[in-house]
Amino acid sequence: MPLLTPELKATIGRQLPPARAEVTRREICKYSVATGQRLQRFIEGDEAPPMFLFGLFMPILPRAQVGHDGLPPDSGLVPELPLKRVMAGGTRQTWFRGIYPGDVLVSRQTLVDLFEKEGAQGPLIFAVVENCVETEAGAPVMTERSTRIAR
Amino acid sequence: MVLSEVHAGIVLPERTFRPDEVQLFMYNAAIWNSHRIHYDQPYTTGEEGHPGIVIDGPLQGDFLTQLVLEWVGEDAALTGFEYSNRKAAYIGDTLVARGQVTEVRETDREVEVELAILNESGDVITPGKARMRFHQ
């Protein structure tokens, strides 16, 4: 008996509204100090370290919308799954160009796959989200696939 | 460094990281992450069942990118990166980032590097891979 119903499988392909963010030298400098970067181009904010992108599109919400755990509400891109223990799987990125102060970047997230497998200790559900980041002019910057595993 | 100097088996200079409260505060402020497991000890141990303040998984991903980017300097660009947080790390842990070249492809001037963050017990807690394209 599959755990993923036709209704859940039908959510594959859905997208979040695009998110847009401006990159500033000051934000790059803060990130570089916080992460202990040692390359001059990152310390001086001439270019952003690649993982700077992780925080660039974090939602900025009113305090009242942030939960007791300190997290914003889930985006809802991955539907509620019948298995509740969720772990981060892996993240795989392809890079096309660097990130520089003054860039205006757009992120588009899509649920690209939802499938189940029988693990050694029971069923597992895999949710794969693709995040395509481009410049405002449409030049590709990075494409990323992240997997969430529910058991 | 030029591509002709790189071969499979080269071990990258390792780097040690010891994230503390101040670094985690700065990091989570910089990425705008207010999850309490990164700064609120009573909440983290009492409500989420961790033994201590949790070092962010993506910060460990960043440490892996630093290892490869410092190794190539200005001589190559990152074209691919992957990582997976397999086991939690906590403030007070000493983390070691290691890397080794696994493949050199002269045709597209690309080099594959296998990466790992190890904890003090020697467990690989965050494995990863990077692909770099050399300019020359």
UniProtKB/TrEMBL annotation, chain A:
Pfam families: FAS1_DH_region (PF13452)
The FAS1-like dehydratase domain, residue ranges: 10-143
SUPFAM superfamilies: Thioesterase/thiol ester dehydrase-isomerase
Transmembrane segments: none
InterPro entries according to UniProt: FAS1-like_DH_region, HotDog_dom_sf
Lineage top rank: taxon: Bacteria
Identification of the protein by name: 3-methylfumaryl-CoA hydratase
Organism: Marinobacter daqiaonensis
UniProtKB/TrEMBL annotation, chain B:
Coiled coil: none
Family annotation (InterPro entries): HotDog_dom_sf, Mitochondrial_HTD2
Domain of life, source organism: Bacteria
MF-aspect GO terms: (3R)-hydroxyacyl-[acyl-carrier-protein] dehydratase activity
Stated name of the protein: 3-methylfumaryl-CoA hydratase
Organism annotation: Marinobacter daqiaonensis
Top-level taxonomy: Bacteria, Pseudomonadati, Pseudomonadota, Gammaproteobacteria, Pseudomonadales
